[in-house]
Specification:
The complex is a heterodimer of chains A (863) and B (86). Chain A is of the alpha+beta class and 863 residues long. Chain B has 86 residues and is mainly alpha-helical. Chain B has a domain at 28-66. The longest helix of chain B is centred in the first third of the chain and has 39 residues, at 3-41. Classes of the chains: A alpha+beta (863), B mainly alpha (86). At the A-B interface, helix 1, helix 3, helix 6, helix 7 and helix 11 of A face helix 1 and helix 2 of B.
Chain lengths: 863, 86
């Protein structure tokens, strides 16, 4: 059960929603009350009343209204109603103006008094007070917590009444009789529900009437009472104090005192980091303390672990990383326009250099410092963690009494243990080089010697409809890469079948990648491989894949330019039964010598709240039974988000970031630990499932050698045209069959078929009623056999079918099996008899022999 | 989406809403103080003049954070977003 007190803003929102609901309910109740008055009222029938209101409507419009409210249009169709329950004359209605009078009031008033009432209410209607006061009531409901909104709204109501009174006095010029009228109305005024006042904004209480009387007689203007004014001023002061004391979006740290001036670092996606300190000079016996601030002026929410345990520290060009305590802390969301400030960065503790795992040592003199934080966009799996580097901040360590035996002064923290040399740590060096030059774009976290597309599958899946992959494409070539063609290749896991290779639309943001793959750009996208470019037959074939392992890759300009991503179609796959942690491997970057390591994790559940993004992103890795200490971490794919209860994939490059290093070019047994979880070990091998297509020396792509098909041919359909889309199936054993599809020229090809005797069939598609079978076919591995299939109807047999009563048998299914003269092929065809019971069956063979001596007709007797 | 995710989303929404409302609170407080002062100086003018001033102040009050946010961001350096939306 979640603790609601950990979500203070949610509680505030809930409280506000309750207050808002009550205020709106009050408002609606008032509107319903007025509607009830209108429903129970009847039009004023007396000629006297109507003539008074008519004359008031046609009377002179006050000069003040003409000057100040020129937009007011002359009223028309004002309805005058009399009804029980109406406490005092009221004007209401925005589209349909109405004046409500208490029943019998007109009889009790003289003509002059009635005229004054009419002038007052007509003035309200002319001024559209009903609309304005309704808007004011709504604003008061929205800002109900504001202590000044209530007197402001009441002031507007009072001024509206005063304006209407002024209109009456300007027309009649008789203040005393009008004041007497108001006093009399106040005297007769019954109790008015407060909700009606809330909804209309009109002041219907006795006190309001009497204040108006006083104002008219004294000539004073209406104003707030002294008490209200004093309360207002106090509320203003309290509001200002609250507003100024709690700057929103910032967590004030202990260093509210002015610190040394520091600029913000370069923004990455609008996120900036600033490193500062209270002072720049430190004594030799002091532990320097710095403060980091992170602000997000971008547009996305970026979870970031805002502690020094999760940041990198650079001192004098050497990058250090906090070696402990990462896995127990979760990221916080850094929303746009939000800022975390005063993140303590102490130059002590377990800082280890990324290069050689040495502890942090601070000598006397000046030092330049920077910090870097990693933020992981959480919106989807295509996003990449971004690394934001702060400004450079210089500190100076004053000369102190020199240590007796050393120049360097190690800061507090555990002693650095000697670590084995890591000769192949070139990638750490690359990372160091990159981070030394902050760029206004996400850090590249995968190597790319040329166009390199990284596919990230999510495996396993229950059907191909669920299959999605994401990719990143990058071209570091100075002139960019012009993409002439891009194909999506799908193979079965046993390597025997190349299921499909078809045009693929590399597209980002709606535009083709070929126009966008400019130098240095990184693009991301996701989707089913080439779904937009698939023909109907390709979609049909993809959709018919059975359970099993499959490999995918992208072929650009005839060269494979992506890793090989594996996925499994498992129709019985149930994510809820999956282990919390599972490993798999993907073919790695060219020349890496090791595959990528994929970690699939199920997000935190209420029982495991500590299984966070950071915990899985920084697992303990064991290779061949030896724990490999992490020196730096390179993620190839997206890092998270690890959403509760959902499976997420993290892809790591384990090529050279560990000590002892995981030796490339060899097979290793690997497992990982994350907290209390340990994965099952898997064996990773450097082999490339789709064959070597990268030159390990030059790290450049090598054109794939053309594959030699085992069987190829052309299929001609019954109409003599190329049999586009026809299925050609090879049968090697009852449970082993390979299927290919004819292209638009009717050509088909089978690759990597082992030597065997097999059968072949060709049919239009799964619904086809004709089928050509080749009974025996010898395939030799390494050679290409050509077999053209002719299904053209050169010969035919026709007839009519009659029922036993002699009448034509329409709609009957007529099937025939044919056998060629040579006896090596069979032809099967079927037709439906027409209304006359007639049928026509075509055959590519000149001679038909009834199969097995049976009648060719299975549905009816021959005519 | 489980209860934690809902609460987290609600907390974020609450933060945004409270930031807006509290901004409206202190900004409109200043506005109302100014309106009180202006209305006091115009106390001998027609009621309709003060009525218009008060109406304008009250209707603008809930929109003040939007207006001030627009002013605050106008001309501010905007970081380029180098990741294309997906």
């Amino acid at each position: 059960m979640p603790n609601p007190w950990k979500y203070p803003w949610a509680l505030c929102l809930a409280s506000y929603a309750v207050g808002l609901t009550l205020l709106f309910a009050w408002f609606v109740a008032g509107r319903l009350r007025i509607r009830q008055w209108i429903r129970s009222a009847r039009p004023a029938m007396g000629e006297r009343v109507l003539s008074v209101f008519r004359s008031a409507l046609e009377g002179t419009q006050p000069a003040s209204h003409r000057a100040l409210l020129p937009f007011l249009s002359p009223l028309s169709g004002v309805e005058v109603l009399e009804g029980p329950g109406v406490p005092a004359p009221v004007s209401t209605g925005i589209l349909h103006p109405r004046v409500l009078l208490p029943i019998g009031l007109a009889d009790r008033l003289s003509d002059e008094e009635l005229r004054a009432v009419a002038l007052h209410e007509i003035a309200h209607l002319r001024r559209r007070d009903s609309l304005v006061l309704t808007l004011a009531a709504l604003v008061r409901a929205v800002l109900f917590f504001h202590p000044l909104v209530w007197p402001a709204a009441r002031q507007i109501s009072a001024l509206a009444e005063q304006c209407a009174d002024d209109a009456v006095l300007e027309t009649t010029g008789q203040a005393v009789p009008y004041a007497r009228l108001l006093a009399r109305l106040a005297e007769e005024l019954p109790h008015c529900p407060l909700s009606a006042e809330m909804a209309t904004g009109l002041l219907l209480g006795k006190s309001a009437f009497l204040r108006r009387v006083e104002a008219i007689l004294s000539g004073r203007r209406l104003s707030l009472s002294r008490l209200a004014l004093a309360g207002t001023l106090i509320a203003v002061l309290v509001s200002l104090v609250i507003a100024l004391a709690v700057p929103l979006g910032e967590k004030k740290g202990p260093n509210s005192a002015p610190s040394e001036k520091a600029e913000w670092g370069k923004p990455v996606e609008g996120v900036q980091v600033r490193l500062r300190a209270m002072k720049t000079k430190w004594q030799s016996d002091e532990r320097p303390e710095l403060w980091a601030d992170i602000r997000n002026d971008g547009k996305r929410e970026l979870p970031v672990a805002a502690t020094q345990n999760h940041c990198d520290l650079e001192m004098d060009g050497v990058w250090f990383r906090w070696a402990k305590g990462k896995s127990d802390e979760a990221s916080s969301t850094l929303s746009p326009d939000r800022e975390y400030d005063s993140i303590l960065v102490e130059l002590g503790g377990d800082w280890r250099s990324i290069d050689n795992n040495e502890g942090l040592k601070i000598n006397e003199g000046k030092h330049k410092l920077r910090v870097a934080f990693v933020a992981s966009p959480e919106n989807n799996l295509t996003t990449q963690p971004i690394r934001i580097i702060s400004n450079s901040f210089e500190i100076e360590i004053a000369a102190g009494p020199p240590p007796s035996n050393q120049q360097s002064r190690p800061v507090e923290g555990p002693q650095t243990e000697p670590t084995p040399p890591n000769a192949s740590d070139s990638k750490s060096g690359d990372l160091e080089k990159r981070t030394a030059e902050p760029k206004d774009k996400p850090e590249a976290l995968f190597p790319e010697p040329a166009v390199w597309i990284t596919l990230f599958p999510s495996t396993p899946i229950r059907s191909l409809k669920e299959y999605r992959h994401t990719y990143r494409a990058r071209s570091p070539a100075p002139e960019g890469i012009k993409i002439e063609s891009c194909e999506f290749e799908l193979r079965s896991g046993d390597g025997l079948r190349r299921i499909a290779r078809f045009p693929y639309a590399l597209a980002v943001g709606g535009g083709p990648l070929r126009d966008l793959l400019a130098p240095g750009k990184v693009f991301k996208s996701q989707g089913m491989g080439g779904s937009d470019a698939l023909t109907e037959s390709e979609q049909r074939r993809i959709g018919s894949l059975a359970d099993g392992d499959y490999l995918v890759a992208l072929i650009v300009n005839g060269v494979r330019c992506s890793n090989v991503a594996a996925f499994t179609v498992d129709s019985k796959f149930d994510p809820s039964r999956e282990p919390t942690l599972k490993l798999f491997s993907l073919s790695g970057a060219p020349g890496a010598g090791l595959p990528y390591l994929g970690i699939r994790a199920i997000g935190p559940t209420p029982q495991d709240p500590k299984l966070t993004n950071m915990a899985v992103a920084f697992p303990e890795i064991f290779a061949d039974g030896v724990k490999r200490e992490r020196q730096s971490m390179t993620w190839v794919g997206p890092v998270g988000p690890l959403q509760p209860g959902k499976i997420c994939t993290f892809i790591l490059d384990i090529a050279s970031n560990f000590a002892p290093a995981i030796e490339p070019g060899k097979a290793h047994e690997v497992y990982v630990k994350v907290g209390k979880y340990q994965s099952e070990p898997i064996t990773i091998s450097p082999g490339d499932p789709l064959g070597k297509t990268w030159d390990d020396k030059t790290l450049s792509p090598v054109a794939s050698p053309p594959s030699i098909p085992s069987l190829r041919g052309k299929v001609t359909g019954p109409d003599g045209e190329p049999a586009s889309g026809y299925d050609v199936t090879l049968f090697m054993a009852p449970d082993k069959r390979f299927k290919e599809q004819c292209n638009h020229e009717g050509l088909y090809e089978f690759f990597n078929i082992p030597s065997a005797k097999c059968g072949l069939s060709c049919s239009p598609n799964a619904q086809g009623r004709s089928r050509l079978r080749v009974l025996e076919l010898q395939i030799e591995k390494g050679t290409t056999r050509t077999l053209d299939l002719d299904m053209q109807s050169r010969y035919s047999i026709s007839g009519c079918v009659t029922n036993s009563d002699g009448k034509p048998a329409a709609g009957k299914d007529v099937r025939a099996n044919w056998k060629s003269l040579e006896g090596d092929r069979e032809w099967e065809n079927a037709a439906i008899t027409d209304a006359d019971g007639c049928y026509l069956l075509g055959s590519p063979f000149p001679v038909a022999a009834w199969n097995s001596g049976q009648s060719p007709f299975s549905a009816a007797q021959s005519a | 989406m489980n209860a934690f995710a809902w609460l987290d989303a609600l907390d974020r929404l609450g933060f945004a809403a409270m930031r807006y409302l509290l901004s409206a609170l202190w900004q409109s407080s200043l506005l109302f103080v100014a309106t009180f002062a202006l209305a006091w100086f115009l106390r001998k003018r027609r009621a309709s003049v003060r009525y218009l001033i008060w109406v304008a102040a009250l209707l603008v009050a809930p929109l003040l954070p939007v207006l001030t946010s627009g002013v605050r961001h106008a001309g501010a350096p905007q970081a380029p977003v180098s990741v294309l939306p997906t």
